[in-house]
Amino acid sequence: MNPKNNWNARTIAVHGGARRSQYGEMAEAMYLTQGFAYPTAESAEARFVKTAEDEFIYARYGNPTVAVFEDRIAALEGTEDAFAAASGMAAVSGALTALLKGGDRVVASRALFGSCLYVLEEVLGRYGVHVDFVDGTDLSQWEAALASPAQVVFLESVSNPTLEVIDLPKVCKLAHEAGAIVVVDNAFATPVFSQAVQHGADIIVYSATKHIDGQGRCLGGVICGPRELIRGKIEAYMKHTGGAISPFNAWVMMNGLTTLELRVKAQAESAQKIAEALEGHAAISKVLFPGLASHPQHDLARATMAGPGTVLTFDLKGGKEAAFKFMNALKVVLISNNLGDARTIATHPATTTHQRLPADQKVTLGITPGLIRLSVGLEASDDLLADLLAALDAI
Prior knowledge:
Blueprint: H1 9-15, H2 41-49, H3 64-77, E1 81-85, H4 88-99, E2 105-109, H5 114-126, E3 130-134, H6 139-145, E4 152-156, H7 168-177, E5 181-185, H8 190-193, E6 203-207, E7 221-225, H9 227-241, H10 247-257, H11 260-278, E8 284-288, H12 298-304, E9 311-316, H13 319-328, E10 334-335, E11 345-347, H14 359-365, E12 371-375, H15 381-393
Helix pairs in contact: 1-3, 3-10, 4-5, 4-9, 11-15, 13-15
């Protein structure tokens, strides 16, 4: 079922891309199959020459369940097509590797998830791809870096974990003038609050493990973009190197999309309330949340995103010792390194998600010993706030 032009996002999230069998099932079918049988040898030959819509060869290349998820997320994001990947990092590394070759140049924001930095510096670097890093919030650095040609620009629209918001419209304009394809990791913005396509991004990458699943069940990722790139370089790379999502995980993600907007908006509302309550607390030196007027890019976030997101960070004055005391005192909030879950999660980036970064890079990025990343879930905001305030009292 192709989305109607006048459907709203919530309707697309429920009905987009639906494929029903002859049985007319209400819930989308899960096709747990590796391969597909052909009626004749001639039809097998024809399918390998050119696969028509709703024809499949092998689960690594495509699957009916996976196709529903891909069509639905592409329609929701506003792109022509999508390719579902085994994880968020499979999507990031797949998109970048498919688009780049030795001698090419990437301009990337410096504030990136540690695994993204590894792909850029270690993996692509060893194959002769040159990477220039810039301060993503400094437009003059983008202008200088993109004064010469580049093949790819890579950034997180909202950085992990310090929540820097990049001026996407201006960076996309500079990138296109330099001949670059813009690849945006949109995990923090979510498909609900993202306006990256409207602002000029070419490829949008999500870790579906986060908000799209939203309940900590499965790994998954997705690459959204123009059909020419998705079914050209990206599909060719992904299907031959094995980064495709499993049908079961795609089925979970597909069903996660049906409640995505309801969940994310409720989480963002709680995050706003918590950020406002924590700002100015005696034990906290700084609260960062795009929904706060004190956030350095607050106005930019309001102009380029449909909502502030579900994640906030705050810096405890007592450093690592205070951070650990605080986390160990939590009763409702869980300690983990994930985000976008229905359960609220506290993370200490300096010793977990970003612990491999050199000390000087942590300082540059603002990943201090006292920094806590809080991914707000679906619990009652009053219960969360009471838990957080009690833990702060325990420091």
